[in-house]
Amino acid sequence: MALPVKGTKLSMASVTDDQCHRVAQEMRLNTLTEVCLMGGSVGARGCEALCTALQENKTVTSFTMAGLEDADAERGWFSGIQGMFGRRSSAADGIGVRGCQALCTALQFNKTLRNITLIGDGIRDQGCEALCKALQANETLSSFTILGGGISDQGCEALCAALQDNKTLSSFTISGDGIGDDGCFALCKALQANTALSSVTILGGKISDQGCEALSQVLESNKTLTSFTIIGDVIGVQGCEALCSALQANKTLTSFTIAGSGLGAQGCEALCNALSSSRTLRNFTIVGEGLGAQGCEALCKALQVNKTLTSFSIAVDPRSISNDALCEAMNEAFSANTTLRNLVISRDVTRMLFTVLLGEYLVSVWMPRGRRDADSELQSNRCFKAIQDKLRRRNGGFAPNAAAAAADLDDFCAGLSDSASVDVISTLKSNDIRTVKALVSILQKRHDDFEDLREVLPGNKFSTARQELEDRVNLEVHLMKWFGEESHLVKSKLQEKRIVGLSDLRCILDGSHPEFGSMFEILPGKQNLKYRNLLEQSFKDEEVGLPRELSRKISRGISS
Predict the structure, then answer these.
(1) Are 210 and 236 in contact (CB under 8 A)?
(2) What is the pLDDT of residues 249-258, one digit of tens each?
(3) Strand, coil or helix: what is 311?
(4) Predicted TM-score (pTM) of this structure
């Protein structure tokens, strides 16, 4: 079976050592720019093959390798995160020290890599010490992420020592079950000496309030960091308060994330003070099990007065607050706040943490959402839907975040002829087309990788689907052009009557639609008068849509 190469990108889940050898051969062709191998039973043998290929490769700029099994949401949020790094196939020996040493050798020769993500339990402290030498000498990497359940303070100290000498890294992420306050102290020294880093993330199973207090002192005076994330199972109120004090003093941070099971309502109160007074923060994320109703309500009050945030994300355990209470509080806050463009509410604490650590794309490769995930009940909540509607209006009709965008794409492709919806959606996503916005960009010739929909949905199998999707995209584009922020409202009214394409509207206006004879039947009442008038006038002013006979053919096909 051929490797799933899409353009210049290769992404695979559940990878074995044998598959790594095939990927290594592909890398030697010097056509790939991104390689992402998530999950499975990658061991030292596969890792060494890939790193040998990296020595010769001249094109790959982003490389991700993870020797992980599938996620286990039942283990609790922090144990679930760390447990992921320790469960590998018994047939694999893990990436381990050998794999890290092989990567060090590759970095001595490779001059094109910019981003590296390395994940696996076998890395441990010895692996970090091996990578330390490579980071000290490397002059090309801009982003380095290392996640391993076996990494302790010793490994963190080794990598932080390398940061003191490195002049090119702008982003650094480290996670280890054994990282505690000594690891935080080492990071403090690195931040005092390093002036290139702009983004830092640290996750440690033993980070306490003492470590947070040390980091807060550095953050107060730091002038280069724009993004800081700290995740720890035993971070308490005192540590949270110290970090919040630093947020109020810092003048450069625009993004801040904190996660911990001990934050509680008092910790939320401290965060509220920081949000209320901050003048620089644009993105804020909080994740925790014990936030509770009181803590969530306090955060919502802070959002009502904050004037700088454009993105706010919260993941909270379902046991601490009901869906109704959480969504109602967030809806009230969002209605009062005029700057937010992205509001993420989630019950899937583990997934949110991995998204913070790795980004939405890598998480989607490794942990694709099923038909019913941890947020499915939340998404059916009335207030949650109201928030999503408001977000779309503020974002020009498009979904504001990855999860909502994926759901929008599913809805957009629903009901295609020949029962092709499922195949179309899976084929689009396999080509990294995960949003309606991306689909629109292809048909408008503005996409970075594709110029024609036939490149994404090839062959006669998808010929009808391509035609219908183009018709639906035409409707999407024209509604945004005519109605602006209100386009989502008009679209939802049309969808209620199964009017999904521009050809449907044209057939209604010229009297040839098989079911509806006028726009009044679609948009009845005085409240919709302005929408009816604008639609009818817009069609007169512009000759839009497909040729008349083709419009009728598509409309009949969809209606039937």
Answers:
(1) no
(2) 999 999 999 9
(3) strand
(4) 0.75
